[in-house]
Design goal:
With 600 residues, the chain is mainly alpha-helical. The chain folds into 3 domains: 2-40 and 57-63 and 419-599, no CATH class; 208-350, no CATH class; 353-411. 48% of the residues lie in helices and 4% in strands. It is built from 29 helices and 9 strands. Helix 16 (352-364) crosses helix 18 (392-401). The model is unreliable at 1-30 (pLDDT under 50).
């Protein structure tokens, strides 16, 4: 009965995490852990490495380990203790620089290999579809070393959104190829990403500028405006003019100034005409060569779209005060030049730097960055110090190493932090501990977790992502005018869905599973807790270890006591597996605690 009460208490805490999020306590000044305010320490004696100054300068304490854990919590999809200690010993900036040298671990080749294995066993299998993208994504993200690249790719996939919640879900190769744009160019240039996204058949199909026709007034045909609208609203400049610190430009009445109007959309839509498939599949009822208008079902879905110059809108196009002169007729190349011209103009627009910077900060560090933080990162986006605009390597490093991400003042700010995304909670635990799997496969179907929490990679409900960047949960956060995008997914259903998922991972030891195994030999993965069981006799040692690993040194005294009270009675002389259950309960309580879910 006592255990049931404890579980109920923790679930209640989970359901009101937003209250904890906004009630962070400001620390007053103090001495110790590197905050010595010029104090000189002397003592009557010292021994070996134990010198008096260490009582206040923080050396030999856990602060550097916590700092490394916190960085990896922001910069990866999950890290284990070896990763944390390696980052600590290397130094945080050096760790980031080392991550920039890691080769991209692409999803499409992995998915292709997985699909070939499945077909070999079952020639009648359907696919590849989103299930097989999920298999490949998890396989890569459970075995890779390009940790920062994969976290950045995931962040970018939430800005330039396509989703399996469309017919794209039936084409795993298309989704995988699209996601690899972000994997390959995570540390490249945002302009290159914009151009590749614009020409990828996944985006062409999702936002309907694939086979977008030129204007034909006689037949009441007009260019589709969908992509033209969203490349402005969601991918580059946003709805309102911005100062370089991300704040709104206001008119004389104090109202935000719109960046574009319907005429701008209509004119820009004329640019995105004439794109069609570049290659076709060898299938019945499909043409031998790609034609403008060829249905997506017949197209090879990993090859960038090509331009059919004859189908491109003739004449000039004027939008946002910029004019593309146009022509009376086009070659394929000159028509494609207009698309590159328009995308480059949007990339160069003064709004793009603060607009993109703000969203990347939210995805990696905090929901409510200060205008100064946004301004510093926007400046790096505008110029990386060598005259290059849009250099994501410089932007990402700037975000991670900024004072609001790393400093004590940034940490204690009550508006700091964010609700950890459901998917990142899942991947974090999966990477934090050793795991075992059948056939060394991490082919996670992912759909159960999507149902439970409403989030999985490439599964946003719309082009607006899982949540809007300015979402404010009703209650105290809204009253304080604080944004919490991830709280859009946090409700009475998904919070319990998450708690149940954690219970399955930790107590039932079902971390993930595919749909490829059999009852006799299920295909899945599970956590290995042998090392933790070896230290679990000492409650404080276990809690301290998990505090480094999961909560980055941020476990509150209150929740430490909750966990301590739950663990201390669990010494069962009648059950040889008591260490196993004690360790599993600790993991469960950590993962559903507000200190874990509201990360700073």
């Amino acid at each position: 009965m006592k255990m049931i009460k404890i579980y109920t208490s923790i679930i209640t805490i989970c359901l009101v995490m937003y209250s904890v999020y906004v009630q962070a306590q400001q620390n007053s000044d103090y001495i110790g852990a590197g905050h010595q305010l010029g104090v000189t320490v002397t003592a009557s004696s010292s021994s070996g490495l134990s010198t008096p100054d260490k009582t206040v300068d923080g050396s030999g304490l856990d602060a550097p380990t916590y700092d490394a854990s916190r960085l990896l919590g922001q910069a990866t999809m999950g890290a284990n203790m070896d990763d944390i200690l390696a980052a600590r010993d290397l130094g945080l900036q050096a760790w980031i620089d080392a991550q920039f040298t890691q080769s991209p671990q692409q999803v499409l080749p992995e998915m292709t290999d997985i699909w070939s294995q499945i077909v070999a066993l079952d020639p009648e299998a359907f696919g590849p579809y989103s299930l097989h993208f999920n298999y490949a994504w998890w396989q890569k993200n459970m075995t890779n070393s390009d940790l920062l690249r994969q976290r950045t790719a995931y962040a970018l996939s939430q800005i330039l959104v396509t989703s399996i919640h469309s017919d794209l879900g039936s084409w795993g190769e298309c989704v995988s190829s699209y996601y690899d744009i972000f994997v390959n160019d995570a540390f490249g240039n945002y302009l290159d990403i914009l151009k590749k996204v614009t020409k990828h058949p996944a985006m062409g199909y999702y936002l309907s500028h694939l086979n977008n026709p030129a204007e034909d007034l006689a037949n009441n045909i007009h260019p589709d405006e969908n992509f033209a609208r969203e490349i402005m609203q969601l991918f580059t400049i946003g709805l309102y003019k911005l100062n370089q610190d991300g704040t709104y430009v206001l008119d004389t009445n104090g109202n935000p100034v719109p960046t574009y109007n319907n005429d701008d959309i209509k004119q820009l839509a004329r640019v995105f005409t004439g794109l069609g498939g570049a290659a076709v599949l060898d299938m019945m009822y499909c043409p031998d060569q790609p034609e403008f208008g060829t249905n997506m079902y017949c197209l090879e879905k990993t090859t960038p779209m090509k331009m059919f110059g004859w189908a491109h809108q003739t004449g000039s196009k004027s939008f946002l005060g910029y004019t593309i002169p146009g022509a009376n007729s086009y070659t394929d190349a000159t028509a494609m030049d207009e698309i590159d011209d328009a995308v480059t103009f949007l990339f160069q627009h003064p709004n793009t730097a603060p607009f993109v910077s703000y969203r990347l900060i939210q995805r990696l560090i905090k929901s409510n960055p200060s205008s100064a933080y946004v301004g510093r990162i926007a400046a790096l986006f505008a110029d990386n110090g060598q005259g290059v605009r849009g250099d994501l390597k410089t932007v990402i490093k700037g975000i991670l190493m900024d004072e609001e991400a790393r400093s004590e003042a940034g940490y204690v700010d009550p508006t700091a932090g964010k609700l950890r995304e459901p998917l990142v909670r899942y991947t974090h635990l999966a990477r934090a501990l050793p795991t075992s799997s059948h056939n060394d496969r991490y082919w996670n179907n992912g759909f159960n977790y999507l149902d439970a929490t409403r989030q999985h990679v490439m599964a946003a409900p719309s082009v607006f992502n899982f949540y809007l960047p300015d979402f404010q949960p009703v209650g105290e956060m809204a009253a304080l005018d604080l944004e919490g995008p991830e709280f859009k997914l946090h409700n009475t259903a998904t919070s319990i869905g998450y708690v149940n998922s954690v219970h399955a991972w930790t107590i039932w030891n079902s971390l993930m599973y595919s749909w490829q195994g059999s009852e006799e030999k299920p295909d899945g993965a599970w956590l290995l807790t042998n090392e933790l069981e070896g230290i679990c006799d000492d409650t404080e040692k276990l809690i301290n270890h998990l505090d480094v690993l999961l909560t980055h040194g941020q476990l509150s005294d209150e929740n430490r006591q909750v966990i301590r009270n739950a663990l201390n009675p669990l010494y069962w002389t009648w059950d040889a597996n008591w260490r196993y259950w004690r360790t599993r309960l600790a993991l469960y309580l950590f993962m559903i605690s507000p200190d874990y879910n509201c990360v700073k």
